Amino acid sequence: MARDKDADRSVRGKQGHQLGPEAKDPTRAVVIVPVLTRQLRGDEESSRPRLSRSADARHDEAVGLASAIDLNPVHTAVVTVADPRPATLLGSGKVAEFADIVKERKAELVIVDHPLTPVQQRNLEKELNAKVLDRTGLILEIFGERARTKEGTLQVELAHLNYQKGRLVRSWTHLERQRGGAGFLGGPGETQIESDRRILQDKITKLKHELETVRRTRDLHRAKRKKVPFPVVAIVGYTNAGKSTLFNRLTGAGVLAEDMLFATLDPTLRRVRLPHGTPIILSDTVGFISDLPTHLVAAFRATLEEVVEADLVLHLRDISDPDTAAQAEDVERILGDLGVDAADTTRVIEVWNKIDLLDEGNRERLLAEGASGKSPPIAISAVTGEGLDTLKALIETRVSGELETMTVTLSPAQLGHVDWLYRNGDVVSRTDNEDGSVTLSLTATHSAKQEIENRLRRKNGG
């Protein structure tokens, strides 16, 4: 099953924008999406079977990943693989077919949307006469381009080095042995591949040390935030679920929010005041994706610690995507790896985004299904703002407790608290008394009510 693209047209898939005539010509790429009918041993032994993804969804995601770094997919194909070959993954007939396509389309790069062993990658490069990137390599390239902060750059570089270390092959046969030692007594030295591995390992050790410094700095910042105890709310979700759009809508920040996979890489934190005055720290995180490389998760653990340490996690789903259930499962797997139980509804809120993209029938059906669960998800549109008031109210309830009604009488000496009460509660009525005191009836969160009582007690010298 193949899908041809016009070889003379710059394509960025459904995620991107067409490049202008003055833009540099993007690299011409062939995108191959293998669909294995027989799972590999590692998948067979998994204790938890994975939801199957549609071939169309996998194809669109692979094209989206390629488009995320301005590649020009001149030919894309979904290939059914009944018997994965140890040497090339694909059968010899398919390899020969793609070699002809690469030559005909003048492609410089072949993307295989599946993990490849070092041997498979090297053999495919020889057979196809083009550079080959597997899914892991492509994600690393995207992350490398997206990283903006020093921390992000260090994390991507560490993941790259770990990836490369496993792919060093004996390509320097003319340097099979180097002489070591001095004079005539020197024995055979290390092989070139061993030398390169040692150099890579030295770089990895140095980067880990730098990242440890970054981690300690993050711990200090986190400790400072805990001294001013603002609850932390982290937004997580599959890439392109709309996390940055929601973040911008709630905070008014200008975080990059394009319809593009991995539009945001570096984490962003902003302070937000909820409707009844509760201040929180909102954290936007890197998007998750299926088959996210384990060493990439390890490299980004310093960033993802914001999720681990969060008081509340918003699991944002693109409910309009046909593969939303499989995407949710991938996110839950990664959360589980980080030690966050996605089934813990006291800490994790499931949020269904992009409901504005659903037709009326599907919308009613999905909302009815969601409402039947123990902890119904919150349906929103980060673009139109629909459902955001409900979401903010639930966040405030979770971090500060249910709303409570109270009546407060402030003496003339306590009137300095009036402004604070208006900002941190909903004032229902106000009575200005003849003695100069003020009586307020208001609703406030449980934590705000306790703060009010503490403030008045301190003012009274209690």
Tag the structure with descriptive keywords.
single chain, 462 residues, 15 helices, 14 strands, 41% helix, magnesium, metal-binding, nucleotide-binding, HflX_C, P-loop_NTPase
Element layout with pairings:
Blueprint: E1 2-4, E2 28-36, H1 41-44, H2 55-67, E3 72-81, H3 92-105, E4 109-112, H4 118-128, E5 131-134, H5 135-146, H6 150-165, H7 192-227, E6 232-237, H8 243-251, E7 268-273, E8 279-284, H9 294-299, H10 301-308, E9 312-318, H11 324-337, E10 348-353, H12 360-371, E11 378-379, H13 388-400, E12 403-410, H14 418-424, E13 426-432, E14 438-445, H15 446-459
Parallel strand pairs: 2-3, 2-4, 4-5, 6-8, 6-9, 9-10, 10-11
Antiparallel strand pairs: 1-3, 7-8, 12-14, 13-14
Helix pairs in contact: 5-6, 6-7
Characterise the protein shown here.
With 462 residues, the protein is an alpha/beta fold. The protein is built from 15 helices and 14 strands. It has helices at 41-44, 55-67, 92-105, 118-128, 135-146, 150-165, 192-227, 243-251, 294-299, 301-308, 324-337, 360-371, 388-400, 418-424, 446-459, and strands spanning 2-4, 28-36, 72-81, 109-112, 131-134, 232-237, 268-273, 279-284, 312-318, 348-353, 378-379, 403-410, 426-432, 438-445. Helix 5 (135-146) packs antiparallel against helix 6.
